[in-house]
Please model this.
Amino acid sequence: MRRPAIVFGIIPLRIFIGITLLGALLGTLLGTAAWGQPSAPRNPVPDVYLITIDTLRADHVGCYGYKQVETPALDALAADGVRFTQAFTHSPITNTSHITIMTGLLPSVHGVTDFGVPLSPQHVTAAELLKKHGYQTAAFIGAVILDSNTLAPGLDRGFDFYDNFPAKPDSKERWDRVERRGMEVVEHAESWFDKHRTGPHFVWVHLFDPHDPYEPPPPFSEKYKDHLYDGEIAYADTAVAHWIAFLKKAGVYDNAIIVVTGDHGEGLGEHGEETHGLFLYDSTLHIPLLLKMPAAAHRRTVIDAQVRTTDILPTILSETGIAAPPELNGASLLPLIPDAAQSQASNRALFGETDYPLRWGWAPLRALRANNTKLIEAPRPELYDLEADPKELKNLYVTDSSKVQSMQAEMAKWKAKLPPRTSSDMPAKPGEILPDPKDKIEVQNLLHNAMLASDDNRASDARQFLEKALQLDPSSPTALRQLGELELAAGDFAKAAIHLKRACELRPDDSTAEFEAGEAAEKSGDWPGARDALESSLKLAPSQMSARLLLGHVYLQLKDAKNAEDQFEAALLVDSNNTDGRLGLAEAQIQQSDFAGALPDLEALTKSDRRNAAALHLLARAYRGLGRAQDAKRTEEQAEALEKK
Ligand SMILES: [Zn+2]
Model:
């Protein structure tokens, strides 16, 4: 499945301020001002607020020492609690990483290693655990890739309210269709909170803003015009500020546990990677982690021990007194805190994973980050001394080095904790060596840019990116398929057919590419080619209605009425009222001179839909076949009259 590219339009500042003021006014009218004092009776059970900021590199946050961005809200939270300087994610992919945060499980253990993969019910989530202990639970997401109805099934488990995107968005604009700005996410959370004041609460807020493309609203678009990624971070920080101010006003801040983290970082060109997902370098694994405890315990604490996103859930459970499920892969961070200065002795090994390269047929990667060393398992493996070479530029991997061997032994222990791969998610056939993602990064950057351009209706830019990608990698099925789709949309069916046919040869299990190849062949009048592609597509995915109908029409063109009839009948089994299917079936019957067979449904169809000229033409043919010349003539005239209108 294709990852939807996320781009959004810019809300004029005036409207933005208007929305904010309106929210405040409504809040006052609804009486929120009255409960705005922190004197509300203190709840012994702490509220839990999780804030995940997408695509947030630790080294681009003010309290992590970065001078070119202003993040006062994050800095204030760090001052009010514990800041982990060496926190790492197990996965550089949004869905996988969030499921890890929510379940405390490694990606290979929870199994959600790509978009759209449902979270198995056997894995319990933070929201389920907290809800069971009386928490009111709600989640507010900033991107459709975390929508539990589509790309993140199961992520909503345990949430009383999960703020999905509308199934049928009003506009074609990206805005609100694929992404919400941070301030809108926070406003949704605040309005939910207003209606659910009785605690304890577990509220998750996801701010997607720093994800590419980098398009912060004004004034950040101006102030950070030469480094827009930082502008997105600064903007997201204002959303955090709004949410925190709200929690303070609601009187729930002091007794709350607040966790702020990133799901992964961003390549920003390091190792050739512009965004994230393909590699396991620190540019995309090193994330910020802030933990504010109830009553501001351990204020201004800094922990330098290496910790992981799997440690977040055990920490929340430990602080709320809820027993942790035994299978969790992380451990509570609380024991590190009292002895912060010595915490480095308690470094925790990080097992990193990415299956994202598999989407393009490239090798998945595994990494172990331990003892200031990183081992990356790849077709060309890598070993880095992170103390001497924090940017991971000098690969020290030598098969027989003792360092490599001890890291491999350690990695084997981690792998032993993972469930065995099933044959369907095996990366390669036995003996097959997939390309190393390091050799494909340029192609991936181009494909990513093409996807963004396509989603932005910039077809000629997309075509250029894809053609460049194909120059670098002529057998990229993804590039061929995307280019085929572009040509199909542009109406160059012969070109589309060539690209799509080649994509299918390279990836014979891609039912969508086969369907599109069939569509392109049909549109260019290549009936046998269309038949073969559509048959293959339906063999891979038999329930595709549109492929069935199109194949039926192709058989009609081939004068193979019997096979056409079979396809239309199969389509009507799925949807007995489908007009296209009913007309196709009637035409197939007429082609076989079964006029009496076609007649009843054509009469019913023309009665219920008197404006259907195609149905009237077919009915006239059926009458003529049955020797009812008068009826045929009258019906034909009705059809012609309709067509003249
Ligand atoms: Zn993400």
Summary: Residues 54-55, 94, 211, 263-264 surround zinc ion (CB under 6 Å). Confidence is low (pLDDT under 50) at residues 1-42. Residues 228-249 form the longest helix (22 residues).
